[in-house]
Design goal:
The structure is a homotetramer. Chain A is α+β, with helices and mostly antiparallel strands. Chain A has ten helices and twelve strands. Chain A has helices at 3-7, 18-33, 52-71, 82-85, 110-129, 134-163, 229-237, 249-257, 295-309, 318-327; strands at residues 187-190, 193-197, 213-217, 220-223, 266-269, 272-277, 280-283, 363-369, 395-398, 415-417, 426-427, 431-433. A four-stranded mixed β-sheet of chain A has the order 10-9-8-11. In chain A, a hairpin with a 2-residue loop joins strand 5 and strand 6. In chain A, helix 3 (52-71) runs parallel beside helix 5, helix 3 packs antiparallel against helix 6 (134-163) and helix 8 (249-257) crosses helix 9. The longest helix of chain A has 30 residues, at 134-163. Chain A is globular, with a radius of gyration of 22 Å.
Amino acid sequence: MNRRQQRYGTLSAPQGDLALRYTSVRQRSMALVAPLSEADAQVQSMPDASPAKWHLAHTTWFFETFILERFERDFAPHHAAYRVLFNSYYQGVGDQHPRTQRGLVTRPSLDEVRGYRQAVDERMSALLRGGVNAEAAMLIELGLQHEQQHQELILTDIKHLLSCNPLRPVYRRQWPLARVAPVAAAWRVFDGGAVEIGHDSNGFAFDNESPRHAVLLRPYALTNRLVTHGEWLAFIADGGYCDARWWLAAGWDWVRANSIEAPAYWQRDGANWTSFTLHGRAPIDPHTPIVHVNYFEADAYANWRAAHDGQACRLPTEAEWEHAAQSVSQSVADGNFVDSGALHPMPISRAGESLMQMFGDVWEWTASAYAPYPGFQRWDGAVGEYNGKFMINQYVLRGGSCATPRDHIRASYRNFFPTDARWQFSGVRLAKDTVT
Amino acid sequence: MNRRQQRYGTLSAPQGDLALRYTSVRQRSMALVAPLSEADAQVQSMPDASPAKWHLAHTTWFFETFILERFERDFAPHHAAYRVLFNSYYQGVGDQHPRTQRGLVTRPSLDEVRGYRQAVDERMSALLRGGVNAEAAMLIELGLQHEQQHQELILTDIKHLLSCNPLRPVYRRQWPLARVAPVAAAWRVFDGGAVEIGHDSNGFAFDNESPRHAVLLRPYALTNRLVTHGEWLAFIADGGYCDARWWLAAGWDWVRANSIEAPAYWQRDGANWTSFTLHGRAPIDPHTPIVHVNYFEADAYANWRAAHDGQACRLPTEAEWEHAAQSVSQSVADGNFVDSGALHPMPISRAGESLMQMFGDVWEWTASAYAPYPGFQRWDGAVGEYNGKFMINQYVLRGGSCATPRDHIRASYRNFFPTDARWQFSGVRLAKDTVT
Amino acid sequence: MNRRQQRYGTLSAPQGDLALRYTSVRQRSMALVAPLSEADAQVQSMPDASPAKWHLAHTTWFFETFILERFERDFAPHHAAYRVLFNSYYQGVGDQHPRTQRGLVTRPSLDEVRGYRQAVDERMSALLRGGVNAEAAMLIELGLQHEQQHQELILTDIKHLLSCNPLRPVYRRQWPLARVAPVAAAWRVFDGGAVEIGHDSNGFAFDNESPRHAVLLRPYALTNRLVTHGEWLAFIADGGYCDARWWLAAGWDWVRANSIEAPAYWQRDGANWTSFTLHGRAPIDPHTPIVHVNYFEADAYANWRAAHDGQACRLPTEAEWEHAAQSVSQSVADGNFVDSGALHPMPISRAGESLMQMFGDVWEWTASAYAPYPGFQRWDGAVGEYNGKFMINQYVLRGGSCATPRDHIRASYRNFFPTDARWQFSGVRLAKDTVT
Amino acid sequence: MNRRQQRYGTLSAPQGDLALRYTSVRQRSMALVAPLSEADAQVQSMPDASPAKWHLAHTTWFFETFILERFERDFAPHHAAYRVLFNSYYQGVGDQHPRTQRGLVTRPSLDEVRGYRQAVDERMSALLRGGVNAEAAMLIELGLQHEQQHQELILTDIKHLLSCNPLRPVYRRQWPLARVAPVAAAWRVFDGGAVEIGHDSNGFAFDNESPRHAVLLRPYALTNRLVTHGEWLAFIADGGYCDARWWLAAGWDWVRANSIEAPAYWQRDGANWTSFTLHGRAPIDPHTPIVHVNYFEADAYANWRAAHDGQACRLPTEAEWEHAAQSVSQSVADGNFVDSGALHPMPISRAGESLMQMFGDVWEWTASAYAPYPGFQRWDGAVGEYNGKFMINQYVLRGGSCATPRDHIRASYRNFFPTDARWQFSGVRLAKDTVT
């Protein structure tokens, strides 16, 4: 086995149904933009977000650049300028169109991007029909996982865009979602010790999940469910956003500089709070998991809760979270993912003994800075830029959200965002030490 | 005659063909956006510019707000939210959607805005069929003049947007434009003395053109034609953008802070310069008038020319310009306006004895700060915000451009922009004192 | 008479007592910094202000550069680096230390700067003892006028610095100043017509005051006294800072972006307003002229007053102001200048028939953009940068203030600042048309 | 033992010579500012830095607030306003003067601050003479450790200020420092395994160094000495600052946004580089440790070295560093600290078998985000704000520098700065995995 094979060892083995999976994932992207007008798909509402049209084109560029260019006989680019125009950040592939100006590219049109997708899909299908070697298969799987990440971003970015419109437009109306009686929070205890985290080499994983390695954990506990909107209302009512005691210094600066008084998308409507959802503006449902809070808010909430309950609590580390996720019976399949169509975190439908809501609903902030695992090696070539160069000044989130495709997530999956990011479906689960 | 009538005295008398004119102007706006996709019409490429869709809606809002709401029996708004959404800056009408966020409003769609236009047009037609009084007629004329101003902005704003696209898209391809042998620059002399400027009350004028009043002018001369691209190339070649001597202090700060080395839309292409036009990227034609320069550049060019020619020269004042425009035989009808379809300043087709290119081609920067004329009175009501509140920190431009409708311009017309604005079709004519 | 002599024609003829005047002006600068510590003299509290130490050094640099370097036999610089370090903005003299970093230059020390002043003073004295020609005499007079301008800035800049200190330190305690019974405002009428403004060539003037020239004025009136603090309190009480109607568009943007609710240096102290003065924090005296308002505020006040009084009023033009100043009996000598020691605008001590407070107390904002007079010519050489290159985006103020040396001012004197500047001693006198 | 006692358990036991140590540390601060003028001590040259006068006052405020106010009988504040003026960031103590405006406070004068120090020192001496309990003793020790941290900042902040002066002033001239033959770099190997880090409870430690706890380390190696200026010159010569491959994404953005091409304080002087030191501008000595690089640069250098040497290398984790520091024979006493008077990193004077330069010379960037140790507890009360609230978006540095007092450092000491900070004496030691 040569070095390159070794390095791609964490990519999944070629699957008989790769072609089928390719078609399915690609179609899912188109389904997500179906409710959007050409104008909706064009606009970049803030620097962190990208236009839906750009997501459609960039994911296609990924297949063209990393698979077709390398494995297709007589490769010729679909459009020479797209190499730069839809390159997100791969220095190894050459220049990139400036990130903040993605919304200014009104041409190619949405139809032309659809044509680009179709042309690449046909060429990919031909390639797949001809059979691909293990490396190509792995890169195709990477392209599909990449596209699934952008599917989530299509939803979070369009949510941000629509929220900027005073007419409060709707992405898809399906409200009210189910209402269920609340489940009391309780601690679930773990012994800790020397445990293993990281990907176990079954199926696909990103390079940042490897190598699997041992870590030492002290005995700890996690709450059985996510922090809810109702619990957050109590934090607000108790002056949580007005009291420096709960906040990291940088968080407090952020609160004051931006006059923050509630999670993103919240708005006072008389005496009550409402929030903007993909179903339009809606009242706060106290039993649903809190969402659209950033690291600063998650951490402040934990500090307030500790003082309020008279018992230390905090955010979990990513190792604690992953060890717990390995240990419990809840499977990924139980989660509220994009596949459910809810597009919003949901109350618990069925209380259980074990940890609930570990997968889906909201990404859970951890206390862990995003860093390479011991012995981490980037993938070879330009795809080596996929993760490694972002391992700084960001924090890890775990478990996927209501905008994540179900077959995209796993216990070792590491998402990461800066501490002030709020437009993702990000929420909170609490942890504590059980021995002090 | 009551006071209100008196105050609207500069508005044109009701015309038999007002309905016809209404239809014609309104259709012209739609014709201008015909080459645009929904995406093109959606995007705001910089704070100074607005989306084409917004221009279409705002001009319609103007008729709905200032004519229908006041003169229509049983008025009801087309859509309650539009009152805020498409209000540009009229504090007297209530809140406004923030200017910098116009591009985020993807809904109403372009089709819905077309529907808004059609509905208001039908109601306006009904109103006109029923006959309108003098005040309504004047306000309708104001609405049409207002729409013509936005027609020019549709072109300058879309030019800016398309220029941001590395694919260099084309608004309308009609290149090369005519080429003609150059005309030598020469001075045309005026005696000065006590002369009158301002609107003479024949036909429509904005409030800022009144009252007509006397000013004292020293003997002066203007160049017979506009400064050309070829002359500007000589300025650049002589280091014009690298020599503080020619520049106002604020202009020099602007040059250095932005690393300016040529007019807007210019780009080096090997040894040559090209510029972005509405026909795509094109080589610099030395015989066409220079365009897309701001006040700082216009003033620096004049200072450089004075040193270069060993003879003082400068920008004209607006009074000098207007007096000259009154005195010469060239009529507005000769100018290169939007009606010609060139959408770019053109070389002189036929040399004459008199001043040439006074109307059309490019707006000519004057040395005059935009200020109220002696005895200036704003119009009554919210339309009083039309001009007066902008009379600060801006400078006057005269004569109209290749993006201006021909029937919109006149000798007394005062356009105005800040000293660093370059995205308008703005150029330069020189002046000098003939007695020192 | 050669050209250079002609160009310096507006400079004063050599005076027998130039050496005496030199000593007197230079000593006055040192007296102004006497109450300052080395730390006070070091700090630059905002980009518009400069450290007192810098003012002392820069004015000395002016004499060294423009007089000694040209007229001294065997000239050698006091310190080679000072040529750049203390050059404010003269491109013709070479590089300049960045304006915003003047406060970082802790060495040379204040003592070394004192030494620099003394050395240059000795060399200047030697030069003057030897006799100077007309051109040198004119440049020396320019240097003295220049130093007087910086004397005013020493006071306005130190006032700003001290106001930033929560301990509210005092420059010089002399409070309370005189209190006098109020004088009712009244209009003083002028016929207008073709009048002459600009310097009459008697004594020194800056190049920007020439050439003297005719302007046409419509009949107008000015108020007999300055707007007072008491009148401004009424403007605030009536919601003046909360009502867009009174404000220029750019002014309203400024009010909202900066949450402005009162003039600079004001602070609410319970139910009352106080302001920071060079004598420390003090209650608002309603009979003193309003001070530390910018153009936007001055213009808004005039608009509010017009609506409040039901009678149009506005800011005067500089031509109106100067014509009035020529016509009235009040002499410069009556004014409250820095010589009085009050360092604050004062109430009227003696009501008269004529215009009062035209000179001293506060600089009066005019409606006139700062522009070259017809036929304006800059001085030759680097001193030609003194005024001309700033004639853009600024407005003219007239009459001098309580921080201006009395022998520095005259009717034709033109001061100028941007529309948002408030740290100068700037106030308001109203004007109106008497024929409409 | 009550809870409070328990929480302060990591503070040193009261020492017989605490009074002596108090005097010694406090005098050392005064000695450091002895070469400064009042102007030098006044200015804040950038937001990250503070004026030397402020450091002197703030450290005094610390003793007044946390010791005198609590333990002194009949406590009265030295000056009521100082409570706010010299509070850095302790929300628990009340308001703070804005950090960026520390340089504007010209009064109290430097002499008054000296008086403040003297008064507090006298009261502290009286308190110590009377005997203090364990808690007071611990807080006094904390105050001394705090003051030692500010002693380092006095030097780094004054270095930044003096570097802004084009005259290149000198803090203390002692150049050239010793030159010694270079020592070849070599790897020193460690077995890893489950090792303990964190403070061992002997002597003082900050709360962030506790609790001591086990971590798992893979086998690793560190270089025997620090990366040198000479090695950095090779990185620059090889285009290190121009090649995105070596840089974290955020680092590359920083390089381009700021046009970085060398470490802080470097300047090209013809063909050679010089750097600004506390001894003035000096040529780069290739054998001295590299200094004034930020995390981005340190990380990029490691990546470049790995590619250059064909062998993976990286920054050490803080656990690797601390374990190595525990294991080697070099004592703190060997280091080049502020006590040596060099005020600059020095070449190795004597090559050894073990790790060299672990203590002193430059702070060594580690790959570890600054985070609480497992089971971390903040100190009680306002001093709990000392460390915990900064545990976000910063990275740990280890070992102390040439500006650190020798008796202030230890193997478990954790310093921390954001990834773009360069004005500290920060450098690089490389690490690698020995098993892959």
